[in-house]
Design brief:
heterotrimer; A: 102 residues; mainly alpha; 4 helices; disordered C terminus; C: 182 residues
């Protein structure tokens, strides 16, 4: 395989996954949180495809395709919820929504 | 020519029953005259759940030893069948509980979604590779996100739905990345194949195991991944909460057990410790936080976190006895959980607002059946004799002790002692009447008759008490189911 | 020469990936954040091509960038000003906890990759030209992963039904709308 080895792709995947996780934990707007969630899922996809190349096994790619579909479905429902909240003039703020009483 | 795999329709039976019920209910919600929609859809959902439970029982009877089917994507074994029976029963009871719930719109689609969620759970417990695991998880989770937000006219419901989606999505993403790492370490997606690949203490495998465990811990609301539970349980419609608290816990716990024992047998030393830590944190956090709660649904949410702790003690044992104890525990727990939230739902429908402890005052006198039932459930949660909860805790502690986790047993006993205080507090409020409203029901006048809910609650009391007296048959079934795991 | 070109493309795609990823989580305007995610998806598609996942790269661009992100942008446009996304994420305790968790994750990744670099990640397997082609993936979907294929379609159906339920509002019934406590 020409170019960087699979390990380099994994580093990328891990960094993007971490970035997405930070976004989910730290941002207040549900739209940005949803976008960060997409980042995380895509980073996992990259890891799957990198490992698929490493093993010479297409299962990883098939898994990644299924994940793409599921992520799209999740986004659809997330956006539906956000629109429903906006229609009721509720604040689009994940922190204000319900206090993290843990 | 493409060699399509042989499809095992028998193993898929429960899933197909619920999926069919969901599909027909969805069509009915559109095609049938408006006044019939709720009835037809509810009836179909009830039939679907009942059929799933019956077919699950048939699979249990027919399957002496586990077999993976459909090209290794799912497994037909007694463990999955056990869970299918329990989830089917839970679903049928929840349909009864949700009958009288005031719903503004989409009355029929609710039951279709409930059946679809049930179908997802019933499939999830038979998943035998990482891909079907993830897909099954997302299947019922997406249904639940919508169900939690179903009361779109109530802000709390929408917010709970969004919160559940975000936290649930986060957990799923962690599970997915962990799956990718495990795939990278072994080159396999199937659980049995992962174990056979013999990757030992490969760093990718261990990191992947940790993340898979973390992702599943979100779903079972084990502390510290339980942050979503109180708000989501409180905000969603009470019948959905009763379904979630019982069915999701059963399905996710069972799958957690299956994944850990089937796919990672060599790493047992590592994951038993990790699960033990999760159990300890859940026991402590769940019980301590439950004390401070005034809202009954939040109290029950934290109580469910502490029960997740008890169940994880059984998983942490890492032995067949532990698996048996977990499977037995799930039966009375599910009944008590559904029943408790059903009683809260009844009070909520009377008052038209969230039920706090003060709002329970007098319920025991006004509606004796519900009051007595809640009493039984609280005693059951606390592990008093004459309820299945007692045997559940006994078996869990025995299994933990035999596996050498005596510190967990001590913690569990302490947690039980502490929990008695807040469970009995709930019972106290049931029968407490202040001078001001002596003689007058809190809701004013007589509460609406809700036959379906009362039947549901009666059934759950029957299971709670019945699992004490009929402990042996349940234990035998649990032992059979546990035997399908490679210990 | 070919190898240098591949490395160059890789660096460009990786740079784009990291930069757009950082942009998604840090800009305050959700519209720009969504655009950054589109750039991220494009960089990912290039990386997929380098990993011999041609079909997936195409699917990524068509499905993800083409439809999911368009859906996002529609919603951002619909929300208009309400979509403003200030920073200030949560109580300070949560912020430090998140930062600590992220650093822990990074340390773990470095350790894990360092340990695994030698054995696991050397010598990627030999692959045929049909690796990652639509035919090969399609065949897998009809044989080994038939069930997963069907489940995916059910997940999509559920999402569609959920979207309709959440999106339609009942006709207003006057005062009753606001009687129920929020």
């Amino acid at each position: 395989m020409s170019g960087p080895g699979v390990g380099w792709y994994l580093i990328l995947s891990a960094v993007v996954f971490g970035t997405g996780a930070l976004g989910v934990m730290l941002r207040r707007s549900p739209l940005i949180v949803l976008l960060s969630l997409e980042l995380m899922l895509n980073a996992a996809n990259l890891a799957l495809i990198a490992f698929a190349r490493q093993q010479g096994d297409l299962d990883g790619q098939v898994f990644a395709l299924a994940v793409m579909a599921v992520a799209a479905a999740e986004v659809a429902i997330g956006l539906g919820l956000i629109v429903a909240l906006a229609r009721r003039d509720l604040p689009l703020d994940v922190d204000q929504a319900s206090a993290l009483k843990g | 020519m493409i060699d399509t795999p042989k499809v095992d329709w028998f193993a898929l039976g429960p899933t197909l029953a619920l999926l069919g019920a969901s599909g027909v209910a969805l069509l009915a919600s559109v095609l049938v005259p408006a006044w019939m929609r709720k009835g037809v859809a509810a009836g179909l959902a009830f039939l679907g759940f009942a059929l799933a439970a019956i077919l699950g029982g048939a699979v249990f009877a027919e399957t002496a030893s586990p077999e993976t089917t459909i090209a290794g994507s799912m497994v037909q074994d007694r463990l999955g069948a056990f869970a299918q029976v329990v989830v089917g029963a839970i679903g049928a009871i929840v349909v009864l509980v949700s009958w009288a719930e005031p719903r503004r719109s989409h009355r029929g689609e609710y039951y279709a979604l409930l059946a679809a969620a049930g179908a997802g759970m019933v499939f999830f417990v038979t998943a035998s590779n990482l891909m079907t695991l993830f897909l099954g998880l997302e299947w019922f989770s997406l249904c639940l996100y919508v169900l939690v937000a179903y009361d779109t006219h109530r802000a709390r419901s929408l917010e709970a739905g969004l919160k559940y989606l975000i936290v649930g999505g986060f957990g799923s993403a962690i599970l997915l990345f962990g799956s990718a790492l495990v795939y990278g370490a072994t080159g396999e997606l199937g659980f049995a194949e992962i174990a056979a690949a013999g990757a030992g203490s490969d760093p990718f495998l261990v990191a992947g195991l940790a993340m898979v465990l973390g992702g599943l811990a979100f779903k079972v609301s084990a502390a510290p991944f339980h942050m979503w539970t109180p708000d989501v349980y409180q905000g969603s419609p009470s019948s959905v909460t009763s379904f979630m608290s019982a069915a999701t816990k059963v399905a996710a716990m069972l799958v957690l057990l299956r994944v850990l024992t089937t796919a990672f047998p060599e790493e047992r030393e590592i994951w038993t410790v990790a699960v033990a830590v999760l159990a300890a944190v859940s026991l402590v956090w769940g019980n301590l936080a439950a004390f401070a709660q005034r809202d009954v649904k939040r109290l029950l949410a934290f109580s469910s976190v502490s029960h997740a702790g008890f169940m994880l003690v059984a998983v942490a044992a890492g032995t067949e006895a532990g698996a048996e104890a977990l499977l037995y525990y799930l039966v009375p727990y599910a009944a008590m959980s559904v029943g408790a939230f059903a009683v809260v739902a009844a009070r909520e429908r009377e008052l038209g607002r969230d039920v706090s402890l003060e709002d329970l005052a007098g319920l025991g006198w006004e509606r004796p059946l519900l009051g007595l039932s809640l009493w039984v459930f609280m005693l059951g949660f606390a592990g008093f004799p004459l309820t299945g909860g007692m045997f559940g805790k006994l078996f869990v502690f025995t299994a933990a002790y035999e596996a050498g986790d005596w510190w967990l047993v001590v913690l569990g006993v302490l947690a039980t002692a502490v929990s008695i205080a807040y469970y009995l507090n709930v019972v106290r409020w049931l029968y407490m009447r202040t001078g001001a409203d002596l003689g007058v029901a809190l809701a004013g006048g007589s509460p609406p008759r809700d036959a379906a809910l009362e039947v549901a609650v009666a059934l759950t009391v029957l299971v709670t008490v019945g699992s004490f007296f009929a402990a042996q048959p349940i234990l035998d079934a649990a032992a059979d189911a546990a035997r399908s795991l490679p210990f | 020469m070919g190898d240098v070109l591949v490395w160059l493309i890789w660096f460009l795609a990786a740079g784009g990936l990291l930069a757009s990823g950082a942009a998604v989580v840090s800009v305050s305007n959700p519209f720009y954040s969504a655009l950054a995610l589109i750039a991220n998806l494009a960089s990912l598609a290039v990386l997929y091509l380098l990993l011999s996942a041609e079909f997936l790269a195409a699917a990524q661009v068509l499905v993800y960038a083409g439809s999911v992100m368009v859906m996002f942008l529609f919603v951002v446009a619909y929300l208009g000003g309400r979509a403003d996304a200030p920073w200030a994420g949560g109580p300070p305790l949560l912020r430090t906890a998140a930062l600590v968790a992220a650093i822990a994750l990074l340390v773990e990744v470095v350790v894990v990759l360092g340990l695994a670099w030698g054995d696991n990640l050397s010598d990627p397997a030999e692959i045929s030209a049909a690796f990652g082609s639509p035919g090969a993936i399609g065949e897998l979907f009809l044989t080994d992963h038939l069930l997963a294929f069907e489940i995916t379609s059910i997940v999509l159906l559920v999402a569609a039904v959920g979207g309709v339920i959440l999106g339609t509002t009942p006709r207003r019934r006057g005062e009753n709308e606001h009687r129920r406590e929020a």
